[in-house]
UniProtKB/TrEMBL annotation, chain A:
<dbReference type="GO" id="GO:0004190">
    <property type="term" value="F:aspartic-type endopeptidase activity"/>
</dbReference>
<protein>
    <submittedName>
        <fullName>Coenzyme F420-reducing hydrogenase, FrhD protein</fullName>
    </submittedName>
</protein>
<dbReference type="InterPro" id="IPR000671">
    <property type="entry name" value="Peptidase_A31"/>
</dbReference>
<dbReference type="InterPro" id="IPR004411">
    <property type="entry name" value="Pept_A31_F420-red_hyd_d"/>
</dbReference>
<keyword id="KW-0064">Aspartyl protease</keyword>
<dbReference type="InterPro" id="IPR023430">
    <property type="entry name" value="Pept_HybD-like_dom_sf"/>
</dbReference>
<comment type="similarity">
    <text>Belongs to the peptidase A31 family.</text>
</comment>
<dbReference type="GO" id="GO:0016485">
    <property type="term" value="P:protein processing"/>
</dbReference>
<dbReference type="Pfam" id="PF01750">
    <property type="entry name" value="HycI"/>
</dbReference>
From TrEMBL, chain B:
<feature type="binding site">
    <location>
        <position position="66"/>
    </location>
    <ligand>
        <name>Ni(2+)</name>
    </ligand>
</feature>
<feature type="binding site">
    <location>
        <position position="400"/>
    </location>
    <ligand>
        <name>Mg(2+)</name>
    </ligand>
</feature>
<feature type="binding site">
    <location>
        <position position="66"/>
    </location>
    <ligand>
        <name>Fe cation</name>
    </ligand>
</feature>
<dbReference type="GO" id="GO:0016151">
    <property type="term" value="F:nickel cation binding"/>
</dbReference>
<protein>
    <recommendedName>
        <fullName>Coenzyme F420 hydrogenase subunit alpha</fullName>
        <ecNumber>1.12.98.1</ecNumber>
    </recommendedName>
</protein>
<feature type="binding site">
    <location>
        <position position="439"/>
    </location>
    <ligand>
        <name>Mg(2+)</name>
    </ligand>
</feature>
<feature type="binding site">
    <location>
        <position position="44"/>
    </location>
    <ligand>
        <name>Mg(2+)</name>
    </ligand>
</feature>
<feature type="binding site">
    <location>
        <position position="436"/>
    </location>
    <ligand>
        <name>Fe cation</name>
    </ligand>
</feature>
<dbReference type="GO" id="GO:0050660">
    <property type="term" value="F:flavin adenine dinucleotide binding"/>
</dbReference>
Length: 171, 456
C-alpha cells in the first residue's frame, strides 16, 4: 500500500476561503488533535481531492478499504445539519471538475473497489470569506452553525470506520 | 472575411477559461484571446491585517493544484519583508518539497495531455485510463511517480496536499533519519521511472509534431502547420529549480520591471460569434449569433515584464539556464518532460546534504518594518511571484503574480497561425492552472465591489 493511504481514510474536502466550504478541512483539523489508530488516516484534501487523491487511490495496487468524505452538501437541510450519502446518489460531476479532466468520474471509479461514505453538512454561506478573525491560529472561517456541527461530524466519521472515541466529544 | 468562434469551456486543465478566436476562411487563427473566467480569488484583500504566519496559509488555498508553490512563495515573501534568513537544513527541506511538487505536477499533466496524442506508429489516440497495454503500464508509471511525489511531500511538508511544515523562519520540525532514508529510497526508485516516462512522452510528442494532421482527443482531423504554437515573446525564470528572493546576494527578479495593464487594454472588444461547430468535442463551441466580450469577461490583469508579455515555465527555465531553444507548443511540452530527472537528482542531492539533527527554525524572527519583500518560486508552471509588506508582524500589503497569469497573453499570441480546432492543444501545452491566476476585482471610487458578476 502506498505510504500516504491507510486502510481507512477520512478526507475533508473544500476551500476555507469560501466560508462554510471550509467545513471539511476544519473537521480534519479537529480529527488531527486525536490519537487515531495506525490504520486510520485523516487528510485535508482541500480543493484537490479528485485529482490528488481519488484518481490515485482508484489505481493503487492495494485498495483503501473505506473512505469517509467530509464536505458541505446542499440537501435542503438546516445549516449545520449533517446527512449521510453514498456516491451512487450523487449526480455526475459532484466530485470532479469537468473542465479539468473530461474523463470519467473518479469517485465513481473508486467506489467500485472502496466503500465510500459522504457526510455532508448543510452550509449557511459559501461566499468568499471576509476572514475577520484576527486569531493567529485561525485557519477556518466557517459560520457558527457549521462550526457547531464539527464535533458531531468527527464522531460520525469515526463511527463509520469503527473507532469508538467514547463520549468525550461534545455533540 | 474573418469569423469569430468561441470555445467555452476549455477542458483538461485546472480552472475555467475560454478561447475567443478570429479565424480566416481556412479556419486559421488570425487573433486569439485566451482568458480566465474563473471567479476572483480576493487573496490580496483577505490577507491585509492578518499575521504574517496566517497569510501564506490563506494563499495556499487559492488553488487546488499548487498549494506547495503558494505556501513557499508566500512564506518567503514574508521572510523577504522582515529580513529573516532561514537555517540551511530548513532550506534543504524546502528544496525537497519543491522537487516533490514538480514531480507530481508534471506527471499529472501527462494525464491531461495524452488524450490529444497518438500511440506512435498508429492513428489511435491515447486514453490514459485504458486497461490495455502499452498504455496501462504508462498509466501505472505516471501514478507511481505521482504517489512518490505526494509521499515525499508528506514527509518533508507534513501533509501531502496542503503542506503544514513550512513556516516563517524555516520549518516547524526537521524530519527523522527514517524519513530521510525513505525519501532517498523513493527518489532512487523514481529516477528510473522518470527517465522512462520522459523518453516515452518525448517520443509521443515528437510523433504528434511530425504528423500532417491532428485532432483534439479523437474528433475530426485538421491540417496543421510546422510552426504550431509559436510566439515571439521572451522568457522569464529565476532559477532552474527553486526560487529567488530579495534576500539573495544576486536577486534574479526585479519588481521595478513588472507592470500590469487592464484586460480592457489588452483583450478584444465585443464580438459577435459567427462560427460554431456541433462536432467539436464536448459541444464546446458557442452557437453562432451569441456574443463574446473578452475585455470585460477576462478575470485577470495582464502582467508585463519590461513592458511586454513573457513566457514562464519549463521552457523558460531551460532556455535561460540550459540554452534550450525548441519553440512551439511541442517545444514547451518536451521541455516539461526534460525536467523529470532533475527533480529527482536535486531531491537526492538535497536529502544527502540534510542533517536531520540540524536546526530548522531561525534563532530570531523579526516582525518587520513595512519593507517590500518578494519571492519568485519556480512552480511547475512557471515563476510564482509573491510580494509582501509586513509591519509589526501584520501584513500591510500582499500580491500574487502566478504563472498562468504571466502565460495568458503569451499563449494568446501563440495561437496565431494554428487551425482553431487545435487551439486547446496549444493552451494545454502551458498546463494552465487558472484558479489562482484570477485576481481582478472591479471597485468604484469608494472601494466597493461593482463587478459582482465576477464574484459568483
Amino acid at each position: 500500500m502506498s505510504d500516504w493511504y491507510a486502510e481507512n481514510m477520512i478526507v475533508g474536502c473544500g476551500n476555507p476561503l469560501q466560508t462554510d466550504d471550509g467545513f471539511g478541512p476544519a473537521a480534519i483539523a479537529e480529527l488531527k488533535k486525536l490519537s487515531l489508530p495506525e490504520n486510520v488516516k485523516a487528510m485535508d484534501a482541500g480543493l484537490a481531492g479528485p485529482h490528488y487523491l481519488f484518481t490515485l487511490m482508484a489505481q493503487s495496487d492495494i485498495p483503501v478499504k473505506k473512505m469517509v468524505i467530509l464536505d458541505i452538501m446542499d440537501f435542503g437541510g438546516e445549516p449545520g445539519e449533517i446527512t449521510r450519502v453514498t456516491p451512487d446518489v450523487l449526480p455526475p460531476g459532484s466530485y470532479t471538475d469537468p473542465h479539468s479532466w473530461g474523463l470519467k468520474e473518479p469517485l465513481q471509479i473508486l467506489s467500485e473497489r472502496t466503500e465510500i461514505v459522504i457526510l455532508g453538512c448543510q452550509p449557511e454561506s459559501i461566499d468568499i470569506s471576509q476572514i475577520d478573525n484576527e486569531s493567529d491560529e485561525a485557519e477556518f472561517w466557517v459560520t457558527e452553525s457549521v462550526r457547531k456541527a464539527i464535533p458531531k461530524a468527527v464522531q460520525l466519521a469515526l463511527t463509520e470506520i469503527g473507532v469508538d472515541y467514547g463520549t468525550t466529544i461534545s455533540t | 472575411m474573418s469569423k469569430v468562434v468561441e470555445v467555452s469551456p476549455t477542458t483538461r486543465h485546472e480552472g475555467h477559461t475560454k478561447l475567443v478566436l478570429k479565424v480566416n476562411d481556412d479556419g486559421i487563427i488570425e487573433r486569439g484571446d485566451w482568458l480566465s473566467i474563473t471567479p476572483v480569488r480576493g487573496i490580496e484583500k483577505l490577507a491585509i491585517g492578518k499575521t504574517m504566519h496566517q497569510a501564506p496559509k490563506i494563499s495556499s488555498r487559492v488553488c487546488g493544484i499548487c498549494p506547495i508553490a503558494h505556501t513557499l512563495a508566500g512564506i518567503e515573501a514574508m521572510e523577504g519583508s522582515i529580513g529573516c534568513e532561514i537555517p540551511d537544513d530548513a532550506y534543504l527541506l524546502r528544496i525537497i518539497l519543491q522537487c516533490a511538487n514538480r514531480l507530481h505536477s508534471h506527471a499529472l499533466h501527462n494525464i491531461l495531455t495524452l488524450p490529444d496524442m497518438y500511440l506512435p506508429g498508429t492513428d489511435t489516440h491515447i486514453n490514459p485510463f485504458s486497461k490495455e497495454e502499452p498504455v496501462r503500464s504508462v498509466a501505472l508509471r505516471i501514478q507511481r511517480l505521482r504517489e512518490i511525489g505526494q509521499t515525499v511531500g508528506e514527509i518533508a511538508g507534513g501533509e501531502p496536499i496542503h503542506p503544514s511544515n513550512p513556516r516563517i523562519g524555516g520549518m516547524y520540525k526537521n524530519i527523522s533519519p527514517r524519513g530521510k532514508a525513505k525519501i532517498y529510497d523513493l527518489a532512487k526508485e523514481a529516477v528510473g521511472l522518470a527517465h522512462d516516462q520522459m523518453e516515452f512522452m518525448i517520443t509521443v510528442l515528437k510523433d504528434w509534431e511530425n504528423r500532417g494532421t491532428a485532432s483534439v482527443a479523437g474528433s475530426y482531423e485538421v491540417e496543421k502547420d510546422d510552426k504550431f504554437g509559436f510566439h515571439d515573446q521572451g522568457y522569464m525564470a529565476v532559477d532552474p529549480l527553486y526560487a529567488s528572493t530579495n534576500l539573495d546576494a544576486d536577486p534574479k527578479w526585479f519588481p521595478e520591471r513588472w507592470t500590469e495593464v487592464r484586460p480592457w487594454d489588452w483583450y478584444m472588444g465585443e464580438q459577435e460569434i459567427t462560427l460554431d461547430d456541433p462536432n467539436y468535442p464536448n459541444h464546446a463551441t458557442t452557437p453562432a449569433g451569441g456574443k463574446a466580450w473578452p475585455q470585460v469577461e477576462a478575470c485577470t490583469a495582464v502582467p508585463m515584464y519590461d513592458g511586454a508579455p513573457i513566457e514562464v515555465g519549463p521552457r523558460a527555465r531551460l532556455a535561460m539556464f540550459r540554452n534550450y531553444d525548441k519553440k512551439g507548443a511541442m517545444g514547451l511540452q518536451i521541455a516539461r518532460q526534460m525536467e523529470y530527472p532533475d527533480c529527482l537528482y536535486s531531491m537526492i542531492e538535497a536529502v544527502d546534504a540534510l542533517d536531520t539533527s540540524g536546526a530548522v527554525v531561525a534563532d530570531e524572527i523579526p516582525q518587520g518594518d513595512g519593507s517590500l519583500g518578494w519571492a519568485a518560486n519556480e512552480a511547475p508552471r512557471g515563476t510564482d511571484v509573491h510580494l509582501a509588506k509586513v509591519k509589526d508582524g501584520r501584513v500591510q500589503w500582499y500580491s500574487l503574480l502566478v504563472p498562468t497569469t504571466w502565460n495568458f497573453p503569451v499563449c494568446s499570441r501563440a495561437l496565431e497561425g494554428a487551425p482553431w480546432q487545435l487551439a486547446e492543444v496549444i493552451v494545454r501545452a502551458y498546463d494552465p492552472c487558472v484558479s489562482c491566476a484570477t485576481h481582478m476585482m472591479v471597485v468604484d471610487e469608494k472601494k466597493k465591489v461593482v463587478a459582482q458578476k465576477l464574484v459568483q
